[in-house]
């Protein structure tokens, strides 16, 4: 089979004006980025149509390091739904350059279920990530200048919280000292970098409803604390308008197309292990304004992406999916069944069956939100009919629907079975009212505890003294009603990346807490999770090249 990039290059793209017209968007109102990409203005969102659209969430069991193919599945389902005659659109996150050149490669789907043009989407795209990076670092530069000018005066700051961001994986920048080599170069201070998807600006962009809301949230970002212990915000710095200007184009969602020329919105890109893991509310509502069925995806396993999708995004946006799709692979099941990672491609019925406990925990979690659940196998060529039958039989025993998806190798034709199940479940069994894991009125400690115990299966939560101090500040600021976003490893229900399967009786350790006052949620940092990833021994960048004008190595 051809590589992802070879498949992408073999498809003759339609003009973006034709893609827009499929869903009733006039080409005159969109802002083209070349022939095949466009920005769509927020004004085209229709809240009444949003209420009538069917939103479906795609999530997964706890993934392997190679993932389980949620994006491919999301795109594949849209292709299958369109083949069934449904007006369907996918709404996805934008890829980050960090993973693209690091561990996982591209994030535009795979095989014959991709969003195109994949090279542009995986690389600089419409510049949204660069705008977010620039906006974030502009705040840092202006804040550093303020501190430099205010040093020794009554306007001086006691503590600075705001760091820098960069959209690369660079462990050497996690902790830095800036302002060295003389007073003309600033004030020496400890700081650091986080990856752009972890930026509060990224979260704000993805949770804002319009430009005014974006501006309001940016102004409320807490940058540090004054000598009197009061929060110092972007509004206090006096640059809210300037930072909003840098994001005036980035806030509009991006329209592209799939491998079968159906519309796709790709916008925003917070990671689910260190941020809230969902594409923008604006893009989701734009898709729902123009389609009867909308598929969206939340990052990593359901304990991270889906939990945050419901407890943060849906809570903030008033959204409620009609169905949740849990993606499984035989390889991930076997890994959670105790099979060594190097052997998970081999046939192992017992290992597969032992891995069902991980799937069952995710099913139970999704049902706790009031969701109907469809389990879909992302079928690989190595999967035997016996393994497929085992998964199907298990799903029948636990009373959830099951389907096989082969869109990676067959495109929309390989997704018809799973698309039919989506339609059947949406039409026959509409979901109940969305239930949240915790109440707005719960304390921050209780919110963390409820997520850890109900979703992860933890026995207890340990808060560091640093975390307790931050909770005290949260209470002082009267913002304990904010939802909680736990930053945790994606490879385990626990905060130990090597504890596969379905662990129990463990404790979650919260080492720090970050107040995202603009995004209006609290980040609890669990275990040793880093908000600036490092690179693997052999990065994907080693395989990326440009040969005779064509990009190679993106996958």
Keywords:
555 residues; alpha/beta; Rossmann fold; Domain 2, N(10)-formyltetrahydrofolate synthetase; Formyltetrahydrofolate synthetase, domain 3; 3 domains; 4-stranded mixed β-sheet; 25 strands
Provide structural commentary:
This protein is of the alpha/beta class and 555 residues long. It has 3 domains: 46-94 and 260-428, P-loop containing nucleotide triphosphate hydrolases (Rossmann fold, 3-Layer(aba) Sandwich), CATH 3.40.50.300; 129-244, Domain 2, N(10)-formyltetrahydrofolate synthetase; 444-526, Formyltetrahydrofolate synthetase, domain 3, CATH 3.10.410.10. Helices cover 36% and strands 19% of the residues. It is built from 21 helices and 25 strands. The strands form 6 sheets. Strands 1, 2, 3, 4, 5, 6, 14, 15, 16, 17, 18 and 19 form a 12-stranded mixed sheet that branches. A 4-stranded mixed sheet has the order 20-22-23-21. It has a 3-stranded antiparallel sheet with strand order 7-12-13. α4 crosses α19. The longest helix has 23 residues, at 128-150. The radius of gyration is 23 Å and the shape is globular. The mean pLDDT is 95.
Largest sheet: 12 strands, mixed
* Secondary structure: helix percent: 25-40%
Beta-strand residue percentage: 15-25%
**Which structural class do you get from the secondary structure elements?**
alpha/beta
How many domains? 3
What's the short story on this structure?
The protein is an alpha/beta fold and 555 residues long. Helix content is 36%, strand content 19%. The protein is built from 21 helices and 25 strands.
